[in-house]
Amino acid sequence: MTTSDNTGTKTNDNDNEMTTNKAPTNSPVTHQPRYTLYGTNLTDEHLGARVIFATDEFFATADNLLKREAPEFDPNAYCSQGKVMDGWESRRRRQPGHDWCVIRLAYRGTIAGIEVDTAFFTGNFAPGISIQAANIPDYSSDEHDEWMPGSFDRFERGGGIRGSKADSDLIVKAEDVCGQHEWKTLVSPVELSPGYPETRMHHFTAEDPSTPFTHIRINYFPDGGVARIKVYGSVSVDFTRDVFGKLKASEPVPVLDLASMALGGRGLACSNKHFGVPRNLLKPGRGLDMGDGWETARHMKRPSIIKTNPETGLVDTDLGDWCILQLGTITAQVEKLEIDTCHFVSTCMYTIFDFSLLIAAYSSL
User: Global pTM?
Assistant: First the structure.
């Protein structure tokens, strides 16, 4: 017999062994905000987002906030600091102030909404948070965010260190350099709920959805833990600055993937998103797995007996799915169409009937 305790941990009554639990990838809320389905997750570590500063990472590093994978909980996992948690968790604060961290977004972009997940943080979640954002002018040229004390060292070692805490002098310096930039409030101070299945997901509509930002600051009030944060929005690209400005004087304009989310491509709508959403088609590079693409559910009205068209050799049916993708900018012509079915061994699309549905459109501006 298997039972569950209030942390979501499953216990086998026969041998009293516990198994690792993984939080569902889909939000348990009845209605997901549209930005979670069609917006770009600007805090995805696989796209380049990273933490550049954190005041305290005693129990778990802030880098965990950016994981694409669902949070996990292993009841048997302990370390010298205590319970291992899959998120960012600071120690119980005894000094004046509160904990905070700064995250470099994967791309400069406008922010529509934010998802905060406290999965498995039931007695140790952050009681309250606020989220601010800034548009750092040197974002494109300062790839290591050397304006932030300790950022380059953190980058070189591959992230934060569990059990560590920034010393008071470094925190003062970090506060000082943050004060040299304008930070706008996206989420005013708000209470969080514990990480039980029915209360773990929090969605906030950004208070400033039109200004492009490069960094966000997460404030814990006063300390505690959060499993994941996803900042959804649209990539903002200035082609003169971000593309042409990086070319040498004698260098020709390259063929660009205008559907790439890195250049502002967006997934706007689709007929079916059972196994994925169209924005996955626009991520740079190869897909990580089948979950990193767009796959639809099988049509329940498909023919009971499959027949093929003798002229085309294709399945004889009018059924099909579609998605609408918006290119990053207007273009005069499309020079190349690239479709990648990596990982979709027996579930890839059979054919494309309308080439106006572009998965990757390469073009010279």
Answer: 0.81
